Amino acid sequence: MSTFASPLEADGSGSGTAGNDARDFAGPIRETVSATRAVFTSGVTRPLTWRLAQLKAMNQMLLDHRSDFTAALAADLGKNPSESWLTEIGFLTAEIANTAKHLERWLAPRRADVPLALQPAKAHTVLEPLGVVLVIAPWNYPVQLLLGPVIGALAAGNTVVAKPSEMAPACSAALARWIPKYLSGAVTVVEGGAPETTALLEQRFDHVFYTGNGRVGRIVMAAAAKHLTPVTLELGGKSPVYIDDTVDMKAAAARIAWGKFMNAGQTCVAPDYVLGTGDALAGLAAELPRSIRAMYGENPAHSPSYGRMVNDAAFTRVAGMLDRDLQQDGMSALVCGGHHDAATRYIEPTVIHVEVGAALMEGEIFGPVLPLVTVDSAQEAMRFINARDKPLSIYVFSEDRGVRSGFSEQTSSGALNFGVPAAHLSVPALPFGGVGESGMGSYHGQHSVQAFSHRKAVLDKPLAPDTLAWIYPPFGILKRQVIERFVAPARKRLGNG
Ligand code: NAD
Predict the structure, then answer these.
(1) pLDDT digit string (tens) for 373-402?
(2) Is the N-terminal amide bond of 465 cis, ω within 30° of 0?
(3) Taking each helix axis from N to C terminus, what angle separates 66-77 and 169-182, rounded to the nearest 10 degrees?
(4) Active-site residue flag, 234
(5) Which of 15, 182, 214, 440 could form a disulfide with 166 if both were Cys (CB 3.0 to 4.6 A apart)?
(6) What ligand 1 atom has the least distance to the C-alpha of 434?
(7) Predicted confidence band at 441 (pLDDT cuts at 50, 70, 90)?
(8) Please, where in the chain does CATH 3.40.309.10 lie?
(9) Which of 88, 166, 268, 437 is catalytic?
């Protein structure tokens, strides 16, 4: 199966679709989806051997073209090759290895108990593939967030239409170049932006997996609703940190700086802001500049380990919020950083004390600026968090058991980490996903296979002996007694009467 290239991509440049609308792509996209469906319908994807072969092929693609993907990530986001391996390519090869190792066991039918009244009978559940899955990826981890869901979709026996983000054009082009060569028939790539995605969403899929912002998430869900197609929405939002003075500040600062400034802050699970008491934040503010220097040197602009904003719009948005808060009297106090350069889309790793009304506290920052917000207590921090959208993650740095259990029991978020931001993504046994405004559904490891499968109920009751004769009409007194005593005994079940 070949990559579908939109009319404006005839020059091979990958993205640019401005001026087109979804109707321009409707025909070719319909054909692409129907070809991808034909592969699924043929039944070829069902055997375990096919699924494992696809995982192996994807692994081979990543290894064979590691340098191409790494170069694309550097071109789009200024990512260091080590960070690209850690958070994109190596992340995926680890996910593939884990899935391949356990897939047979994950797919095994699960026995289910049959109530006495239905005996003799056997029951089990079996995971069956959904069909054709649409995966729509964002630009910030453009390789990981496209191929990660694809791993689960293929392991579950589906075929896939994959739409990389046009905002990361080099990565989109690399994915479109190699996927058809390694995953022909299993995965079709459609490059492009909103018009192509709109045309895709008009087609009927069996699952739509979208990663990105909540505004488009709503568009995706509304489009999927027309076909009653289930969706997974991996969205973002402001993921808070709470810190108190029971922790080793130096170690905590290093962890927070690592999670925040990786990929220049353009990580969905990056700490967005830090809540803490005045003392705790003073301690953290003393350590963070040292951690930043240790990671990125005296001038991060010269560090090969530090990334850049993805495009001018992202740069202008983040630098604009920072400048507004710096210019407004009493709204903020700079701890470190603050420099930026539009020409290179560089924003210095920045730490800043802010008031609650600051521009930086309005929406997700998605850039390398870390606001510190003073609260009186852990209780106030929890109230602050609970008054806002449910975050994708909450990070707690505290040795106080009461504080830890308070966050566990009194807040809601996609994930709750103690002592480390972002690292839960690398635990394949943990479901990765949001709740409320941060998304719905989850994936990674076995959770991916479940996300892209239907768990079918299977019941097998022999025709003889026909124990069900007791519940067939006509109903007399004897049958009523049998039904009420043995088949559906309502009383005493929950100890109520
Ligand atoms: P983006 O701009 O690349 O958009 C994501 C996808 O939506 C792209 O493929 C794009 O083509 C498509 N799209 C854009 N406009 C569309 C439209 N009008 N109709 C249909 N499709 C459209 O990425 P983004 O949204 O800027 O990504 C950043 C956001 O994603 C942040 O909020 C971040 O927190 C979130 N995010 C979440 C996760 C997660 O796993 N939960 C991971 C990464 C990013």
Answers:
(1) 999 999 999 999 999 999 999 999 999 999
(2) yes
(3) 160
(4) yes
(5) 15
(6) 41
(7) very high
(8) 240-433
(9) 268
Q: Is the CB of 137 under 6 A from ligand 1?
A: yes
Question: Could you tell me the pTM of the whole model?
Answer: 0.94
* Percent helix, percent strand, percent coil in the chain, to nearest 5: 50, 15, 35
CA dihedral 208, 213, 214, 217 (to 10 degrees): -20
User: Could you tell me if the CB of 140 is within 6 A of ligand 1?
Assistant: yes
Question: DSSP string of 75-110?
Answer: HHH---HHHHIIIIIHHHHHHHHHHHHHHHHHHS-E
> Residue 15: pLDDT above 50?
no
Instruction: Report d(CA 370, CA 425) in Å as an integer.
Output: 21
Query: Quick one: pLDDT at residue 25?
Result: 82
For residue 394, report the distance from its CA to the centre of ligand 1, in Å.
21
User: Rounded to whole angstroms, how far apart are CA atoms 44 and 56?
Assistant: 16
Q: Distance (Å, rounded) from C-alpha 73 to C-alpha 85?
A: 10
pLDDT at residue 255 greater than cutoff 90: yes
- Residue in this structure with the two tokens 């049959």, named with its chain if needed: 114
Q: pLDDT at position 114, please?
A: 96
Ligand 1 atom nearest to CA at 268: 34
Tokens of 270: 């990056």
Q: pLDDT-derived band of residue 287, with 50, 70 and 90 as boundaries? A: very high
Q: Is 409 a catalytic residue?
A: no
DSSP notation for 407-472: HHHH---SEEEES-SSGGGG-TTS-B---GGGEE--BSHHHHHHHTEEEEEEEE--SSS-GGGGGS
Looking at domain 5-235+445-454, which CATH architecture does it have? 3-Layer(aba) Sandwich (3.40)
CATH value of 240-433 in 3.40.309.10, 3.30.200.20, 2.60.40.420, 1.10.1740.10: 3.40.309.10
